[in-house]
Fold this protein.
Amino acid sequence: MPTIAFHGAAGTVTGSRYLVTAHAAGGEDQRILVDCGMYQGLKDLRERNWAPTPFDAAALPFVVLTHAHIDHSGMLPRLVKQGFKGRIISTQATYELAQLLLMDAAHLQEEDAEFLNKKGLSRHKPALPLFDSDDAKSTLQKFTVRPYGAWTDLPDRFAFRFLNAGHLLGSAMIDLKVTEDGKPTSILFSGDLGRFGVPLNPDPDAPPEADHLVLESTYGDRAHPASSLYDQLEAVVKETIARHGIVVVP
């Protein structure tokens, strides 16, 4: 039976990082990592990013990435800094977005460390970035892209395919097959899922059958309103205009 270790996004909603281990009688365990996200939010969460990687980064052959948002990809440069030499597999659009987001994240880390050193606000002398631009560049060199729907074999007990999650450009569910002693087990990682009938993004693909489902449930404790997104936006704009305010659209 394959095992999943939750090294993030458990008890909190950021830092998604799932280590999947395939076992075989008389053979060595094999592992892959699904996502490698940064903890974000309150200080006690952000400090977890500095903890040593709870597995051997140098012995890890593959990271499979659901999407480019920093809470799913932001610790990849840290993983590389700690010895990861394998491949990072994503969709084409996720790779293109990662080029922007990971370099920007590295710049922010460097900028924060410089500010703390300049102001003498850190107990560390000197304050260092979690990772730097060189780490981010090395990380981007390790990407391999795969299309939606195509099965990819990862030697020799794993195979997976990306399914569109409809969350943002390139976002994907990961349909993972793990084979142990000739017996397959299917695990579906939802990643972050989009909504149906929204502008710009396609609807999520229908999820396939799976033996196990690992479901991101950040907003699982609330009911989404049924009203149109256009109507919601119109209400915000009209309310702001009525009080002579300013609408900022990122």
Summary: The first strand starts at residue 3 and ends at 6. The helical segments are 43-46, 70-73, 76-81, 92-119, 133-140, 229-242.
